[in-house]
Design a protein that fits this description.
By secondary structure, this protein is of the alpha/beta class. Helices cover 34% and strands 25% of the residues. The chain is built from six helices and seven strands. Strands 1, 2, 3, 4, 5, 6 and 7 form a seven-stranded mixed beta sheet that branches.
Amino acid sequence: MLKREGEKHKIIFFVSTNIHKVKELNDIVSVYGITLIPARIKKMEIQADDITEIALTAARDAYNKLHKPLIVEDAGLFVKELNGFPGPYSSYVFKTIGCKGILKLLEGVNNRDAYFKSILVYKDEHHEVVFEGMVEGEIAHSIRGSGGFGFDPIFIPKGRNKTFAEMPLGEKNKLSHRGRAARKFIDWYIKNKM
């Protein structure tokens, strides 16, 4: 159900300080009459081995502060040869060793299979719903591209030869873990809230 001309957008708060995530998700949801507004509250970041637990905890905490419809999104890069590392610790690992550090850990490794996983939680007074998106691929041998953010310059989605950072936003959103989770959310939201 695409937004019709003159229709008012539904506002949902997005608990994130990552402007790239806000831009990516708004690019997807805006055509359906939804606008995500960054919530001006601190996102609770627990340390856990499960990104679903991390996202749910953050959504519950944020809702207790805002009392408004909101979403929280958490994602991780899981490298199979590294037993799923960095996984739920992706943000911290990116800040500390970055793309170069992951490439260093994979020096001389032939199996470069990896996947990105996104958990998007929608919460309001009556609903708490979890949406998951995943994309399989592999780790490139070098940093490539200037788009995207985080580990995008080293992740090549399955069946492609470009990293996420080498793709325009629209192409990345069609393939990405975050895009897949967002489309599941939109399907649910249209049926239940619009």
